[in-house]
Backbone:
């Protein structure tokens, strides 16, 4: 499995979630951006997994008080 495989993307997203829960915002954001962009390319913008990953990144921004960035997503 490569970086673009759906299972790999799910595992990276899970790690990002763990980082977020630990307050490791920078690491969580970096992984979420990677997963979101790869999902857009591989699955398309309208795929449910891509939309979930966009929402997860928005939630990370929200949790840090980065309202404008969250809203833009």
Residues:
């Amino acid at each position: 499995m490569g970086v673009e495989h759906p299972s790999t993307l799910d595992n990276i997203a899970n790690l990002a979630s763990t980082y977020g829960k630990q307050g490791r915002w920078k690491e969580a954001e970096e992984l979420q951006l990677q997963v979101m962009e790869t999902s857009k390319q591989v699955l398309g913008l309208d795929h449910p997994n891509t939309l979930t990953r966009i929402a997860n990144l928005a939630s990370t921004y929200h949790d840090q008080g980065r309202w404008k960035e969250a809203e833009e997503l």
